[in-house]
Design brief:
CATH topology of the largest domain: Rossmann fold
Radius of gyration: 19 Å
Low-confidence stretches: none
Strand content: 25-35%
Helix content: 25-40%
Number of helices: 7
Distance between the termini: 48 Å
CATH architecture of the largest domain: 3-Layer(aba) Sandwich
Order of helices and strands: HEEEEHEEEHEEEEHEEEEEHHEH
Oligomer: single chain
Strand order of the largest sheet: 8-6-7-15-17-16
Structural class: alpha+beta
Shape: globular
Length: about 260
């Protein structure tokens, strides 16, 4: 049960529209040497602790799922996925990309507290004009509350894995219901604002957007040529933006102003 409890802390309460293609069965048996993990009855690995065993199952199951998705024509990109309401009341899908540490999770968390529908902050699958976020609880690094004061109330109730605090949107009454949607906007986090309050969100051409997506893609079975084809097809009607980093609420204001 300790392995299951640790897995539960990593996974959000999310529902998705994709039918089950395959069931995988894992088991973690505690021995004097640690936890022996099996997949479909075959030995997979040994973890010294329940946390390590849960991590093995978590990583392995996701990799298998991503492989199946790749073979079905999906490409995986490292990006936050947020559905925003426009001033006309329409819903548009926004992918936020950028290198690790650029602020994707901070921006997604601020948007979550701002009422946006945050679908995920880590990975998204794209193909033929469609996109589907990979659900993951938001991983908040130490010091997140210093720029996101809204966290003060909920942080004491959240599980901590290593140095990362894990925020399931359901814990702030925002359970995730995943949807397959076309990509409306791609926001590339690049550069730091001159001052934290003067954040800019400026247009970015398709070539620069594609380059950023390729940099943050996770190819499995795809060749580079196929990745370019899949990502180009998924972004055919998307608008590109370059968003500088600054105070999270200023970033949200600049982003909403650019999207309308």
């Amino acid at each position: 049960m300790r392995v299951v409890d640790h897995l539960a802390s990593l996974l959000p309460d999310a529902h998705h529209p994709v039918p089950v293609l395959r069931e995988l069965h894992y088991a973690a048996t505690e021995t004097s040497a640690g936890f022996v993990i099996t997949e479909e009855g075959d030995a997979l690995a040994t973890g010294a602790t329940a946390e390590e065993a849960a991590d093995v199952v978590h990583v392995r199951a996701h990799r298998r799922a991503f492989e199946l998705a790749s073979l079905s024509g999906w490409a995986r990109v490292h990006a936050a996925t947020v559905d925003l309401a426009t001033i006309e009341g329409r819903r548009v899908r926004v992918l936020v990309v950028g290198p690790s540490g650029a602020g994707k999770t901070t921006l997604a968390t601020r948007l979550l507290f701002d009422g946006a529908d945050v679908q995920g902050d880590e990975s998204v699958l794209v193909r033929r004009g469609e996109s589907l976020a990979v659900p993951r609880a938001l991983h908040l690094k130490p010091g997140a509350a210093s720029v996101l004061p809204e966290l003060d109330e909920v942080l004491p109730r959240l599980p901590v894995v290593g140095e990362v605090t894990v925020l399931d949107p359901a814990r702030v009454d925002r359970p995730v219901t995943l949807r397959i949607e076309p990509v409306g906007h791609v926001v590339v986090l690049a550069g730091v604002a001159d001052t934290p309050d003067h954040v800019t969100c400026t247009p970015l051409d398709g070539g620069a957007v594609l380059e950023a997506l390729l940099t943050d893609a996770f190819p499995l079975t795809e060749t580079k040529a196929r990745m370019v084809s899949v990502l180009s097809g998924a972004m055919v009607s998307a608008h590109g933006h370059r968003l500088t980093s600054g105070r999270p609420d200023a970033m949200v204001e600049a982003l909403r102003g650019a999207i309308g």
